[in-house]
Here is the input.
Amino acid sequence: MLATFFNIPVKVHWTFGLLLSFITYTAIVDTTNWQQALLFISFVFILFICVVLHEYGHALAAKRFGVKTKDIILSPIGGVARLVNMPSKPAHELVIAFAGPFVNLVIFSVLSTVLWATTGSVLPPNDEMQFNTALDFVRWVNLLNISLFVFNLIPAFPMDGGRVLRALIALKIGRVKATHLASIVGRVLAIGFIIFGVYSQNLILSLIGLFIFMMAGKEYDQTKLTEIVQTTTAREVMRTTFTKLQLHDGYPFVFQQFESGERNFVVFDLLGNPIGTLPELFIKDAITNKTNLNTVNDRYSDNIGTVAPDQKLGVVIEYLKKMGLSIVPIVDGNAILGVIDRQDIELFIRDKVG
Ligand code: ZN
Here is the structure.
């Protein structure tokens, strides 16, 4: 961790440190002019600050809509403000996505105004990175910020522009469809980058295109997954045919059921009340170690919970994780309607996301 502002920690991915050391090293080795080398290192340092400010733009906008930010991570390909949850309203997402680039636009506007008023030129005189005067240095910082603004607003995931575009479309149609459309736009754009990069012999442009292309589909899958766990109920996922194990059931019977596909079991007492579970882990362990177990009573877990049928799948997943359960009975009043285990969830999601 580097520092914490507004209760949001800034963390650095180790490869980012590597990149900084590399840049510093080359700057020192390649130069005979120490002043230029130091200015170049300062410039990289300021780039790093501008990226952090950009991420705080996202984080503080998110905070305004009650969305918490876990942390800000800096890596060689840029910064990420990791939001704890996604804003549900497209209008909120729009503001959060735009807030990052907006910070760079504000820095650019302020510096431009000052530069324009004092010198009449806001950008560096040529594209060779040299800091002949202090003002040139400021002009380079200015160019850096307008570049960050434009680059991040490329309308393709994982760029902020992709999120802005998705939010704009989502204002009209559903979020999943909007993500689908936005990822198509991103892919077309990515192919354009790759082709143009090859044509103009600009390797970096082609690589950016390739990266965007790969990320576009990922974002769509993620959104679809989020949508599924937020809208599906336990009733839709639960399995109604399942083995009701009793304490006196023999382990050979358990192995037999396990072989035929059931992974996790609920253990019931003689009155039919769920009293515990027999997780996959215990069964596999018994099989590999050839443990001498006679009945379920010899080894099961008395860890048990229940879930109501109208509970959302996302809540069920969190519940299983929190309770350390691998299976849970779905209970409505006194009636046990079915069970959900990890395998059921996996299969259901795999079936929907495809
Ligand atoms: Zn951003």
User: Anything to note?
Assistant: Residues 67 and 86 are 7 Å apart (CA to CA). Residues 54, 58, 100, 152, 160 surround zinc ion (CB under 6 Å).
